[in-house]
């Protein structure tokens, strides 16, 4: 594995690059892209990402050169020298890949790699009519409780029905007015790479604070057992088992902090810890130290899971 130098507060992007490098499926898709017709290469994010991911695979004795990628992000308003939120930057990068690649099929392949298709149902509590909307997410945003919690608990809460009353009432076409309602989300399909955002930041009265509370997460998870009630009747995937391959860690406070990453190396399946230019081998026990609850250590902020068991992902194959 190859480190990345910190350039003008680039630890957030450095960390995301380590997770994207560990997502070999993304690199495989970008390698298929010719990019011969790209104009203004300096500001084309997918082209610069393709180059830096290729660079990160070679000469691991020195930090990889990634200034061109940082500049391409800066030219697309992800500014250098600014504190960023990792999930926001991650979604911005995926959006730029989708819009700046001139091969629509490959751009769609990248989107599908992370695409979580969901069905949102809103039922009026006055007339019982139901409105349904099918949409998708590229990252699963999970609310975090302020006391001890777990990934399984966060997932259960996300898919629970919520009553919407008062200012949260929705417009009912049948009643022709805003009415109390019940809202629920169901899974239509799960992606090859599942990105999970643990929402540790809270806004209150104009101030933002970070929750350092303990949130446990497993190395492997089976959605068919953990949240089986969350599946839509149209869900037809057989394999719902996922294995963790990257963790984005945040240290510090809401106003000022630092990002690092734990990533699982492709060939050996060993864990490594990346802190900008410094990379060293780690263990699953060390990864678990990012659960939180200890204010002196970093806390997991994003989790990246790959579909398949630990044994299956050791033989990497790109599937839909």
UniProtKB/TrEMBL annotation:
Per the record, the domain of life is Eukaryota
Q: Which GO terms describe its molecular function?
A: cysteine-type deubiquitinase activity
Looking up InterPro entries in the UniProt record yields: Papain-like_cys_pep_sf (IPR038765), Peptidase_C19 (IPR050164), Peptidase_C19_UCH (IPR001394), USP (IPR028889), USP_CS (IPR018200)
Q: Which GO terms describe its biological process?
A: protein deubiquitination
* Any one GO cellular component localisation term in the record: nucleus
Cross-referenced PROSITE patterns: USP_2, USP_3
USP domain boundaries: 2-308
The record's CDD domains line, in alphabetical order, gives: Peptidase_C19 (cd02257)
Q: What is this protein called?
A: USP domain-containing protein
């Amino acid at each position: 594995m190859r480190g990345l130098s910190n350039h003008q507060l680039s630890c957030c992007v450095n960390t995301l690059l380590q997770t994207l490098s560990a997502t070999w499926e993304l690199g495989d898709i970008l390698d298929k892209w010719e990019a011969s017709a790209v104009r203004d290469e300096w500001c084309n994010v997918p082209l610069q990402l393709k180059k830096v991911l290729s660079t990160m695979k070679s000469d691991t004795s020195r930090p990889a050169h990634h200034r061109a990628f940082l500049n391409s992000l800066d030219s697309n308003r992800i500014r250098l020298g600014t504190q960023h939120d990792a999930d926001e930057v991650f979604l911005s990068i995926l959006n730029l890949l989708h819009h700046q690649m001139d091969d629509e099929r490959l751009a769609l392949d990248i989107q599908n790699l992370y695409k979580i298709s969901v069905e949102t149902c809103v039922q009026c509590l006055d007339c019982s009519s139901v409105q349904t909307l099918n949409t998708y997410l590229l990252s699963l945003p999970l609310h975090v409780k302020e006391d001890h919690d777990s990934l399984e608990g966060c997932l259960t809460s996300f898919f629970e029905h919520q009553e919407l009353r008062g200012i949260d009432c929705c417009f009912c076409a049948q009643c022709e007015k805003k009415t109390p309602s019940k809202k629920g989300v169901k899974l239509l399909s799960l992606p090859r790479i599942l990105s999970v955002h643990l929402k540790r930041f809270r806004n209150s009265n104009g101030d933002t604070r970070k929750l350092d509370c303990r949130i446990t997460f497993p190395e492997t998870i089976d959605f068919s057992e953990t949240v089986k009630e969350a599946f839509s009747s149209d869900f037809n995937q057989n394999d719902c088992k996922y294995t963790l391959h990257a963790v984005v860690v945040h240290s510090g406070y809401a106003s000022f902090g630092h990002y690092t990453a734990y990533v699982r190396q492709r060939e050996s399946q060993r864990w490594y810890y990346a802190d900008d230019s410094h990379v060293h081998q780690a263990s699953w026990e060390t990864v678990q130290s990012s659960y939180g609850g200890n204010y002196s250590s970093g806390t997991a902020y994003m989790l990246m899971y790959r579909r398949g068991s630990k044994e299956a992902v050791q033989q990497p194959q790109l599937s839909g």
